[in-house]
Amino acid sequence: QVQLAESGGGLVQAGGSLRLSCAAAxxxxxxxxxxxxxxxxxxERQFVAAITRSGGSTYYADSVKGRFTISRDNAKNTVYLQxxxxxxxxxxxxxxxxxxxxxxxxxxxxxxxxxxxxxxxxS
Length: 123
Hints:
Order of helices and strands: EEEEEEEEEEE
Mean pLDDT: 96
Shape: globular
Strand content: over 45%
Helix content: under 10%
Number of strands: 11
Radius of gyration: 13 Å
Structural class: mainly beta
Number of helices: 0
């Protein structure tokens, strides 16, 4: 059974940084594309970033490009999201997701999800 567990969320002031982690279990991690999505209250879930199985390519939503960095460590079965220059509009629950195929920016294409971690950015 595939399990994804996010950690690292919290409360931070605008302009600050946070690093999210997502640990995977029950899966051959290196065969899955990984992504981060987020969902703010009253809004649809939104693509944030994705990374290919090898980590050789990354993809970002325009709203986070240049501020967020996705990375992975296949030896540790973990994907990360480094978030810098945070803005109040980044406030959301952040989810990691796994897909046994090439990356996608559609949440409908992902097979497995974590429980989410709250990120709150104060102004």
